[in-house]
Amino acid sequence: MYFSSPIWLILLGPWTALAIWLLRGKFPVQGVPFLELWRREAFNHERPVRAWIWPPVAVLALLGAMLLGILAAGGPMVHSSGTSAQSEKDVPLESLAVRDWPAPQAMVRVGNQSDLSQARLTFSGGNILTVESIELPARGGERNYFVDLTDVPQRVTAMLSAGPVEHLLEVQRAPGWPAIDARRPLPAAVSRMIDVYSGDRNPDQISKHIAVLASAEDVKSDEPTAIIIEPKTAERAISPDQPMLIRDSPITRDIDWEDAVAGATISSPPGVGWQSLVSAGDEVLVAAQEQPIRKVWIGFQSDDFPRRADFVVFWNNVFNWLGESDWRQQVATAQAEISSPPAGPVNPPVSMAGQTLLVGLGMVVLAAFSWKSRPRSAR
User: Fold this and answer.
1) Residue 102: in which H helix or E strand, if any?
2) Which domain does 287 fall in, by range?
3) 205 falls within a domain
4) Whose CA is closest to 143, among 116, 168, 107, 177?
5) Same domain for 261 and 217?
6) What is the pTM (predicted TM-score) of this model?
7) Do 270 and 299 form a contact (C-beta atoms < 8 A)?
8) Mean pLDDT by 10 residues, the chain (379 residues)
9) Same domain, yes or no, for 130 and 223?
């Protein structure tokens, strides 16, 4: 059993103090009409000692009702029986990843909560159908399995069959490296960066096409775009006493922006609909928008920035973000995982708050029926 709201159990402190006070009791007091007759012998009698006494049944019932009410407020929960029996016989398919370079291959992680030693893996999708028999790890263990595929289609499904249990995982190919459309004229450093990026990363059939241009007037609404402001529009210098504000984003990471924009000139802000990523005071240096199409606005010019390693990191971030692709997706092109259904019904914990409260109310009723009024003593 466990409690979903243990804060209510703090009331057990006052309840315990009340119970001890009632059970500790007082020595009985009896009125004696001729007390003066015993006054001389009072020194021969020891002082009565307090003793534990049982209060009336009604008081005990009320104490029990208070205790059950506190426990009910704590939300007691119990695990239903039969849940572990099913899970102990399971052979879960933990994860699936697929890559197409340097060779088509799939990797699956399989756990074993059973006494089985053999299972069958089936990979399907497009024109592929691969069946492999595997040796399962020992009970309670996990193991990775690598299986060569003849091809990597758009969607790959893995099915694990172990006795009466079957699990399915399905992955979808992620977009490849983007195809970059450089709209001339561009700064020489940016053009070289595009050539290096495109030479090392070949796009595929589902790659996104992105544009890099130096004028916001040529932007199309249906294509991801990187907009570089023209040098003649960057006329204002960044004030050295303006604080830098860097918003965490895949575009701004791993860059020393203090050095990157040192001595840079900036242009007017991009307008409404843009989210500032890098700013110096009220001046926006880099901005982006994600809806309806991803776009990046670069609003500063610097002669030193292209000579720094941060320049390469920045444009690599921009291209990857616009193309919705990165190195991890290219190495393992299928990472989106669809969880497999459980092997059997899983019983959630059962709340006992209602039953506890009903028993407490029953004890209140018992106290009401067993309560006896004390007769008044005659004066």
Assistant:
1) none
2) 179-327
3) yes
4) 107
5) yes
6) 0.47
7) yes
8) 76 83 64 55 54 74 84 76 50 82 83 87 86 89 89 84 82 77 84 86 77 74 79 71 86 88 81 86 88 88 87 90 61 35 53 83 82 58
9) no
